[in-house]
Design brief:
Number of strands: 6
Structural class: alpha/beta
CATH architecture: 3-Layer(aba) Sandwich
Strand content: 15-25%
Number of helices: 5
Strand order of the largest sheet: 2-1-3-4-6-5
């Protein structure tokens, strides 16, 4: 049996975290953990060592960009790819940019599970 991909979903919205978790775990290809904030995400990433992190950009206390910077600076988590989930760009903008800005991957909300899965597979193929 293949090993499941471990993901950490970070969003201050519990409903978004739950929807992503349910959708991904329903495929039986993923184990999904959740964090509600940047500080919690950093702590869990250090502990769990997920294969990838799906992170909201706009969160209180610490933005997704700030958390990603911390993750990239820490030797324990620097290797973990981060995919940003954002409502700050349209799906058309994201598609025109092929979902990438300055080497960072972005998915525009609302995002479907198929888009998340394709992006995770794309990111993990790079590593």
């Amino acid at each position: 049996m293949d090993t499941k991909i471990t993901l950490l979903v970070v969003d201050d919205s519990a409903s978004i975290r739950e929807a992503v978790k349910r959708g991904l775990e329903h495929t039986r290809k993923y184990t999904v953990h959740q964090a509600a904030s940047g500080p919690e995400a950093f702590s869990l990433a250090c502990e769990l060592q997920p294969d990838a992190i799906l992170m909201d950009l706009l969160m209180p206390m610490m933005t997704g960009a700030e958390c990603s910077r911390l993750l990239k600076e820490a030797p324990l988590t620097a290797h973990i790819p981060v995919i940003f989930l954002t409502g700050m760009m349209s799906k058309d903008d994201a598609k025109a940019l092929d979902g990438e800005i300055d080497g960072e991957l972005y998915l525009a909300k609302p995002v479907c599970i198929a888009e998340i899965m394709a992006t995770v597979e794309r990111v993990l193929a790079r590593t």
